């Protein structure tokens, strides 16, 4: 009996890595398809020859080859932003034990937006390197405020209280953003395109600015993953295993806000990517953060790149901003998740 039980346990344990490897292969293939679609589709038709010229023949200076080069930058930027938002969602859900936690739902995106519009209006900033620091500070202060408000009263920071605190904070900050913008037409013109959320404004400079923040956030996420797994067993069990719960929560939350703030500063407030990516991965392979972090990064990149392609096709001959597409896809899914899970804790 013991030999049979151990054999069954070994078989069960072996299914997880195999499933994770299979999922990883599928995600890489899907990301490859999305990259190809991002290069091919848009307001202008592009052929295979144009793609080859744009990628491998720098001496070719046709309009189509230049379009391909612009789409390469846009695609890389979308992958980086999507990966950052996916990992940010995974960290926020783990830290708050809230299955519907997401930078947009908890008001973090709106906090970043508020600080950016204040910088444009009062400090006259206009560069991505200035946006990014203001957005990160705004995202961090908003995250602390929402968690503090959601922790008040009996029961502590429950999922429902965090969502309500985030929604109320977003409403207040959105009103303040409008109050600052409306009397200042120059601020409104500069801010309105950023506010929708788009990856079309990505450049090599913005990619280079974003890269250190992305790498730092991913490093923090991977370093805290084992401790976050222990915390899923409960605070008492995690403490008995030597996990410093307060420090890990603070560190992981900092990583999530860093990723979200940097992506929001450069691409605008894009919602629901972290929520969708994390839920898909949790359904597929479970809550192991060591697997969820890289898988959520890939899934977030797929979602944002695919949404960008859809926005270009649906808005042709112009384009529909990616923030609109992700909201259109994510809002119904959020309603379904809330009804299905009844806002249970992780």
Concise synopsis of the structure shown:
By secondary structure, the protein is mainly alpha-helical. The protein contains 13 helices and no strands.
H-E order: HHHHHHHHHHHHH
- Strand content is under 5%
Give the biggest beta sheet.
none
The class by helix and strand makeup works out as mainly alpha
Sum up the overall morphology in one term: globular
Determine the number of helices (DSSP H or I, runs of at least 4 residues): 13
- The end-to-end distance, rounded to whole angstroms, is 34 Å
Gyration radius over CA: 21 Å
The low-confidence runs, each spanning 5 or more residues with pLDDT under 50, are 1-15
**pLDDT averaged over residues:** 83
User: How many distinct beta strands?
Assistant: 0
Describe the structure.
This protein is mostly helical. Helices cover 79% and strands 0% of the residues. Helix 1 packs parallel to helix 12 (289-314) and helix 4 crosses helix 5 (128-151). Mean pLDDT is 83; it is low at 1-15.
Overview features:
globular, 79% helix, mainly alpha, disordered N terminus, 346 residues
Reconstruct the topology from this structure.
Elements: H1 2-40, H2 48-56, H3 63-96, H4 108-123, H5 128-151, H6 159-181, H7 185-196, H8 204-231, H9 235-240, H10 245-267, H11 273-285, H12 289-314, H13 322-341
Helix pairs in contact: 1-3, 1-12, 2-3, 3-8, 3-10, 3-11, 3-12, 4-5, 4-6, 4-7, 4-10, 5-6, 5-10, 8-10, 11-12, 12-13
